[in-house]
UniProtKB/TrEMBL annotation:
<dbReference type="Pfam" id="PF00171">
    <property type="entry name" value="Aldedh"/>
</dbReference>
<feature type="domain" description="Aldehyde dehydrogenase">
    <location>
        <begin position="28"/>
        <end position="486"/>
    </location>
</feature>
<dbReference type="InterPro" id="IPR016161">
    <property type="entry name" value="Ald_DH/histidinol_DH"/>
</dbReference>
<protein>
    <submittedName>
        <fullName>NAD-dependent succinate-semialdehyde dehydrogenase</fullName>
    </submittedName>
</protein>
<dbReference type="InterPro" id="IPR029510">
    <property type="entry name" value="Ald_DH_CS_GLU"/>
</dbReference>
<dbReference type="InterPro" id="IPR016160">
    <property type="entry name" value="Ald_DH_CS_CYS"/>
</dbReference>
<comment type="similarity">
    <text>Belongs to the aldehyde dehydrogenase family.</text>
</comment>
<dbReference type="InterPro" id="IPR016163">
    <property type="entry name" value="Ald_DH_C"/>
</dbReference>
<dbReference type="InterPro" id="IPR015590">
    <property type="entry name" value="Aldehyde_DH_dom"/>
</dbReference>
<dbReference type="GO" id="GO:0009450">
    <property type="term" value="P:gamma-aminobutyric acid catabolic process"/>
</dbReference>
<feature type="active site">
    <location>
        <position position="264"/>
    </location>
</feature>
<dbReference type="InterPro" id="IPR050740">
    <property type="entry name" value="Aldehyde_DH_Superfamily"/>
</dbReference>
<keyword id="KW-0560">Oxidoreductase</keyword>
<dbReference type="InterPro" id="IPR016162">
    <property type="entry name" value="Ald_DH_N"/>
</dbReference>
<dbReference type="GO" id="GO:0004777">
    <property type="term" value="F:succinate-semialdehyde dehydrogenase (NAD+) activity"/>
</dbReference>
Length: 498
């Protein structure tokens, strides 16, 4: 049978990067129960391949393997772990084109964006390879006579990672590289929609000399697997990127084992445009901040709040710019937006648009008859959006932009903060006083001023409120996988001092 998987392996320079197994203890593994799930190309709905759905005892076997391997991995010097991670980084870079092809096939994003994600994902591996060499403890001036006090940093233990489908590679490396550099083994459960990027990373980790049992990829029914990972006491840290709904569930399920939790959850970013802004410059930036990854991005500018004095011109410029976006199969030529991940995502987007129109919003752009396939959703612009609408309250995770006019800074602060989310916010103005006032008042973990691009390895990425707990990347990202051990060396004699 000629399936897309045959086509895919022919398309790859290195077909061994396309694996249809789980990866446990350095071995490619079938499901013991023979259960499988198909993975689809969202652009065509063709089957790309299949993944095994593992049984409970296989997830436990991954934990056993990680436990056994931990002893040796943590005993390596930091510079030895750095060497392996840099080898992994080099291999990811060397196989960028294949990794991008796999990603576009399973996720749908245009090839240039997929190449960009590979680059982005690799950059976290290099960053944490270096950061692993700087996990300093401290010396504490002693208050106890004849004693020396201090701290050392130690790996927290086995770390489990549950990751989403919108960034199938970078959401793994941002977690796994930090944990590996800290000396922790990892067990990754990727989204079932996009498992093949994770499996290709496992193949490259093996080639880079990351030992058996240190990098594991488990696959299965998400609720079943996550329950086991959460309730397993030997897993000491759980890092999750995904929806706030599932994040809440994982907090509950991890309570009995009191795990370290890092949660990168949903966002509902406001994009605030001040009265002093050039409407064209701001509108072009807003289009870019809204429609990347077809709007399926936690940083997507969902609620665009424009000062009333420039609102109409802004809408005109925004409309012109977004109307030039092309929608199509990410594998073919230059397209700006690929498909949504599946049919349910299209249905959700349509229902959010319907809800807004029924409550008084105006649809300026958004003719769905132009969609090139069942899983595609043409970019929509809604104006007169209000807080009663789903498009304001929910993370739409689709190419649906909502614009609202405001009149004062205080009003826009209230509007921007009127959400359970607190991941990222954008401000466009050149007035330094306004920038400072808004930046301080916005209840968000990240605020980007006059820049669409805000992320990268040096950045402490993360949200407040119900957008999550902890920070990934930056100088503190590795701390999510480290414990601080305090020591008191007593009875040292007068030489100890402080
Ligand atoms: N804050 C960030 O850094 C960031 C980055 C990317 C995506 N996200 C968020 O991710 C969401 C989109 O991704 P998604 O649709 O894959 O999210 P999701 O929460 O549905 O799924 C995320 C992961 O959880 C698993 N999962 C699904 N249902 C589960 C259940 N009942 N029990 C346990 N695990 C389950 C999935 O298989 C997947 O691996 C959006 O909310 C987006 O904002 C956040
Ligand atoms: N674009 C984000 C991922 C959110 O979906 C990132 O850069 O991490």
């Amino acid at each position: 049978m000629t399936t897309l998987s045959t086509m895919l392996t022919k398309r790859l320079e290195d077909p061994r990067l396309f694996r249809q197994y789980a990866y446990i203890d350095g071995k490619w593994t079938h499901g013991n129960g023979g259960r499988e799930e198909a993975v689809y190309d969202p652009a065509t709905d063709e089957v790309i391949g299949h993944i095994p759905l593992l049984e409970a005892e296989q997830i436990t076997a991954a934990v056993d393997a990680a436990e056994a391997a931990f002893v040796h991995w943590r005993a390596l010097r930091a510079d030895e772990r750095c060497e392996r991670l840099l080898a992994w980084y080099d291999l990811i870079q060397a196989n960028r084109e294949d990794l991008a092809t796999i990603m576009t096939l399973e996720q749908g994003k245009p090839m240039p964006d997929a190449r960009g994600e590979v680059e982005y994902g690799a950059s976290f591996v290099r960053w944490f390879a270096e950061e692993g060499k700087r996990t300093y403890g401290e010396t504490i001036p002693s208050h106890i006579p004849n004693a020396s006090l201090g701290t050392i940093k130690e790996p927290v233990g086995i770390a489990a990672m549950i990751t989403p489908w919108n960034f199938p590679l970078a959401m793994i490396t941002r977690k796994a590289a930090a944990a590996l550099a800290a000396g922790c083994p990892v067990i990754i459960k990727p989204a079932n929609e996009t498992p093949f990027s994770a499996l290709a990373l496992a193949e490259l980790a093996e080639r880079a000399g990351i030992p058996e049992g240190i990098f594991n990829v488990v696959l299965g029914d998400p609720a079943e697997v996550s329950k086991i990972l959460c309730s397993e006491p030997r897993i000491r840290a759980l890092s999750f990127t995904g929806s706030t709904r599932v994040g809440r569930l994982l907090i509950e399920q991890s309570a009995n084992t009191v795990k370290r939790l890092s949660l990168e959850l949903g966002g509902n970013a406001p994009f605030i445009v001040g009265p002093d802004m050039d409407p064209k410059e701001a509108a072009y930036a807003a289009v870019s901040a809204k429609f990347q990854t077809a709007g399926q991005d936690c940083l997507a500018a969902n609620r665009i709040l424009v000062h009333e004095s420039i609102h109409d011109e802004f809408v005109e410029q925004f409309t012109e710019r977004m109307s030039a976006l092309t929608v199509g199969n990410g594998l073919h030529g230059e397209v700006d937006l690929g498909p949504l991940i599946h049919r349910q995502a299209v249905e959700k987007a349509a229902s959010i648009v319907d809800d807004a129109i029924s409550k008084g919003a105006t649809m300026v752009v958004g003719d769905q008859s132009q969609a090139p396939g069942d899983n595609f959703f043409m970019p929509v612009l809604l104006t007169n959006v209000t807080p009663q609408m789903k498009v304001w309250r929910e993370e739409n995770f689709a190419p649906v932009a909502g614009i609202t006019a405001y009149s004062t800074d205080d009003e826009v602060i209230e509007m921007a903060n009127d959400t359970e989310y607190g991941l990222a916010a954008y401000i466009y103005t050149h007035d330094i006083r306004r920038i400072w006032k808004l930046m301080r008042a916005l209840e968000y973990g990240m605020v980007s001023v006059n820049s669409v691009k805000m992320t990268g390895p040096p950045v402490p990425f993360g949200g407040v409120k119900q957008s999550g707990l902890g920070r990934e990347g930056g100088a503190t990202g590795i701390d999510e996988y480290l414990e601080t051990k305090y020591y008191c060396l007593g009875a040292l004699g007068s030489v100890s001092g402080s």
